[in-house]
Amino acid sequence: MGTTAGEQLTQSRTALQIAGGAAVALALVPGLPKVPFIMVGSVLIVVAQRIKASDARAERERAVVAAQEVAGPQQPDTPEQLIEQMRVHALEILLAPDLVDMVGSGTDQDLLSRVRGLRRKIAMELGLVVPPVRTRDSVDLPRSTYVVKIAGVEVGRGEAPGGRVLALGENLDGIGGTPVVEPVFGLPGKWVPAEMRHAAEMLGATVVDRVSVLITHLGAIIDAHADRLLTREDVRVLTEGVKAVNPSVVEELVPGLLTLGEVQRVLQGLLAERVSIRDLPRIYEGLTLRAKVSTETEGLVEAARASLGPALAAPYAHDGVLRVVTLEPVFEQHLMEAVRPGENGTQLALEPARVDHLLSSLRSTVAQAESSGREAVLVCAPALRPALRRTVVLALPSLPVLSYGEVTGAGLQIETVGVIQDVRALAGQG
User: Whole-angstrom Cα distance, residue 382 to residue 275?
Assistant: First the structure.
């Protein structure tokens, strides 16, 4: 026991200092022998100082060894290592060093599992197999910041401060926090301390944890760039899956009529307009019929859309009602006469003033419909739809543009919420 106690005592410089000080203090108590206590206390204090010096010397030696290891001869990079460092990942999340704790197993640290769930959700909705998401830290990012990259290019950035939750609402003046605008829906909110979550909910706010904020942002980015994430290898794998259940349609289409690259461009065109490609057999059947006439990409995309039919309008309907914005018939006819072929498909050859009027009218009409809680789609003639979509996307990238056939074939009740007129007609009325 004496040996063990001595070893433990000599391992702690603080314990020796306390013991030495106590011994010296006891020497000051009347009636106790002063010399023995002063000697014992002095010895303990001296030993503590030597242990301190020894620890400092050992720390310096370890620092020197570490510096030598860092500055030592570097092994030459192998070609495999260089290739791995050069590789550009399809989808990547960069986290500031203080956000690394989000990659864990707790309720607020389940980023990786939530990413896996998001990939499954997108596969079921869009039919797109999202590539594995690489997650790593970056010392170059500001504190509490994350960045999403596609093919090495930044496409989104946000904040997710530790120990806080995002309260979304307009009546948050009663609680402290950092004001912020939610990155996906543009809603006002505050990053408030996690312990104030209940107080924020009592004020009517919607409270979201920081992992959910990042996952929602990532989902919106994938949805907006789904066409960029669809690779040639993905198309091959999807085509093999169709061939396993419907071999005749694949054998007739690929490679007899279309190459995998041409099929990829068609599927990318559908994804660019947020059209699900889950029903590949039906899409391939439509492509087979069209490819026998022409392999022009725009025509193939429209043929694929026609084969999907009611599935295009159904996602935008609510309670069996589809709210639409239409074009005044004379204006629509003028637009059809302005359609011109282009290198990447048909385009609208209009005067800048008429284009500005068209886009501003659409923007105000759609905003008015959305302010009353009613999502709307733009409907036009089939021959006009591709060119009109390329123009509308400049101002309203999320506005769906459907043709009359895609709407009427869905068996939905149509409610017109706005009609876009020609600027010349409005000038004549004035």
Answer: 16
What's the pTM? 0.77
Kindly state the average pLDDT of the residues 30-54. Answer: 71
Model pLDDT, residue 144 = 93
Q: State yes or no: pLDDT of 389 exceeds 80.
A: yes
Residue among 301, 243, 240, 307 nearest 272 (CA) = 301
In angstroms, rounded to a whole number, what is the distance separating the alpha carbons of residues 229 and 90? 7
For 227-268, what is each residue's pLDDT tens digit? 999 999 999 999 999 999 999 999 999 998 999 999 999 999
**Whole-number Å distance between alpha carbons of 167 and 206:** 6
310: confidence class by pLDDT, cuts 50, 70, 90 = confident
Please say whether the beta carbons of 254 and 245 come within 8 A: no
Question: How many Å separate Cα 146 from the centre of its chain?
Answer: 10
Residue 222 and residue 401: Cα distance in Å, rounded? 20
The set of residues, in sequence order, having a beta carbon less than 8 Å from that of 287 and lying 6+ positions away, is: 253, 257, 258, 263, 266, 300, 303, 304, 307
- Give yes or no for residue 190 having a pLDDT over 80: yes
73 pLDDT band, cuts 50/70/90, is low
Query: Could you tell me which of 410, 403, 271, 415 has the C-alpha nearest to residue 336?
Result: 403
Q: Identify which of 327, 348, 352 has the alpha carbon closest to the alpha carbon of residue 338.
A: 348
Question: Residue 29 corresponds to which amino acid?
Answer: V
Q: Which residues pair with 165 in a beta bridge?
A: 192
Tokens 């959700």, residue? 121
Find where tokens 């060894």 sit. Answer: 65
Terminal C-alpha separation, the chain? 106
CA dist 328 and 30 (Å) reads 109
Tokens of 362: 């659409």
- For 181, the 3-state DSSP assignment is strand
What CA–CA distance (Å, rounded) separates 368 from 420? Answer: 13
For residue 132, say if its preceding peptide bond is cis, omega within 30 degrees of 0: no
Q: What is the pLDDT of residues 213-237, one digit of tens each?
A: 999 999 999 999 999 999 999 999 9
Provide the CA 328 distance to its chain's centre, in angstroms: 38
